[in-house]
TrEMBL record:
Pathway: Amino-acid biosynthesis; L-serine biosynthesis; L-serine from 3-phospho-D-glycerate: step 1/3. PANTHER family: FORMATE DEHYDROGENASE 1, HYDROXYPYRUVATE REDUCTASE. Signal peptide: none annotated. It is an enzyme of class 1 (oxidoreductase). CDD domains: ACT_3PGDH, PGDH_like_3. This is D-3-phosphoglycerate dehydrogenase. Keywords: NAD, Oxidoreductase. It comes from Anaerobium acetethylicum. Its EC number is 1.1.1.399, 1.1.1.95. Pfam families: 2-Hacid_dh (PF00389), 2-Hacid_dh_C (PF02826). Transmembrane segments: none annotated.
Length: 387
């Protein structure tokens, strides 16, 4: 029986995929695998029993990836599963920044009991007038699952779209409309665009990428949208740029003590992925990843271990070994098995950075002391007999 812990509520349509071989535990310390959305895993103790964590979503900055890898815990995310939800909110953000829809709605509430509300509206509506997005220049930093959808949608709404992503994947490039202007230097986005939206992961290399220096290169009255992570933007610099009138609006999906009351900021309570469809898509993908890993040892969409697929085990035994990516690991595995008279029918070994993963299928049962010998090899982080 596998024990699953949910650190956040996970959509039922995903949880329902767990068969009667699984049970849900309230206790993270007892779990074989955990599901999480934005809850932080950084402070949690990682038990020996924990095999996998699946992030039902894209950003994995709430999970200590290297610490997990070092304990042989495979971390997954669900690439693209919530991208449409975010894209739609970004389009809403473009519109909310262009016309004072929020101010107008709040104003109506302030006169809602006046019987002349209709006349008052006609008299006051010019205070909330704005501009259209058609024809304006939109710069997109990060053309992954979300950036590409935003680019194509904004293009269809008549915007001139500029895209920057030095690490764009082949798939993303294929999906990008040919109308998107390919930018090689992010400064060209800063200098040219009326709207700039950021869709990169939070990494050391991207932290505070939108700062005083970047903003100083931008057009006056620029609108900046951040549906990626608050720490990508130096929000103290942002507050100053809004106060100085350099930035017209800062649309962010991340309330915090700096942004929540910031004049000129439109702050949304992290709703990008909070749609029924995105929540369902993420839950289904995350649960399938965990099941495939626990039941067959196969790894798909991991962010700290290599992809690895040896199908379903048809031999007597399957052993999964999470280990360091150092020389002679396979040599040691095979010689220990050979000395024990175990014939290997199939095997696979994949590496990613400092970590590697091996699956070995054997034709006969493998004794516990042989597994103990494998476990004792220097560089082995975790070992499981799956079947
Ligand atoms: N507001 C919300 O609810 C949500 C927010 N997010 C955030 O959005 C981020 C992006 O999500 P996805 O598009 O699904 O991820 P993704 O991994 O598909 O795309 C990220 C893209 O950023 C690019 N990139 C990395 N460093 C870059 C740099 N320095 N300059 C330009 N491009 C760079 C990568 O090459 C990749 O193409 C996530 O990491 C997460 O933080 C994601 C989903 C929901
Ligand atoms: O997928 C992401 O990166 C998100 O930011 C979505 O977060 P959530 O699952 O809505 O807490």
């Amino acid at each position: 029986m596998f024990k699953i812990n949910c650190l956040n509520p996970i959509a039922a349509v995903g949880m329902d995929l767990f068969s009667d071989k699984y049970t849900v535990t309230e206790d993270f310390a007892q779990a074989d695998a955990a599901l999480v959305r934005s809850a932080s895993v950084h402070e949690l103790e990682l038990s020996e029993q924990l095999q996998a964590i699946a992030r039902a979503g894209a950003g994995v900055n709430n999970i200590p990836l290297d610490k997990c890898a070092d304990k042989g815990i495979v971390v997954f995310n669900t690439p693209g599963a919530n991208a449409n939800g975010v894209k739609e909110l970004v389009i809403a953000g473009l519109l909310l920044a262009s016309r004072d829809i929020v101010g107008g709605i709040n104003w109506v509430q302030s006169v809602k009991d006046d019987e002349n509300v209709a006349k008052l509206a006609e008299k006051n509506k010019s205070k909330f007038a704005g501009t259209e997005i058609k024809g304006k220049k939109l710069g997109i930093i990060g053309l992954g699952a979300i950036g590409v959808l935003v680019a194509n949608a904004a293009n269809r709404l008549g915007m001139q779209v500029y895209g920057y992503d030095p690490f764009i994947s082949v798939d993303a490039a294929w999906n990008l409309s040919r109308d998107i202007k390919h930018i090689n230097n992010v400064e060209d986005i800063y200098k040219e665009c009326d709207f700039i939206t950021v869709h990169v992961p939070l990494l050391d290399s991207t932290k505070k990428m939108i700062n005083k220096e970047a903003i100083s290169m931008m057009k006056d009255n620029v609108v900046i949208l951040n549906f990626a992570r608050d720490l990508l933007v130096d929000e103290v610099d942002m507050g100053e740029a809004l106060a100085a009138g350099k930035v017209k609006k800062y649309v962010t999906d991340f309330p915090n003590p700096t942004t929540a009351g910031m004049p000129g900021a439109l702050v949304i309570p992290h709703l990008g992925a909070s749609t029924e469809e995105s929540e369902d898509n993420c839950a289904i993908m995350a649960v399938k990843e965990i099941k495939e890993y626990l039941e067959n040892g196969n790894i798909k969409n991991s962010v700290n271990y290599p992809a690895c697929d040896m199908g379903i085990c048809t031999s007597a035994v399957r052993i999964a070994i999470n280990h360091k990516n150092i020389p002679n690991m396979l040599g040691q595995f095979t010689s220990i098995l050979a000395s024990a008279g175990v014939n290997i029918s199939d095997m696979i070994n994949k590496s990613r950075g400092n970590y590697a993963y091996s699956l070995l299928d054997a034709e006969t049962a493998v004794a516990d002391d042989v597994i103990s010998q494998l476990k004792a090899i220097d560089g082995v982080l975790k070992i499981r007999v799956i079947k």
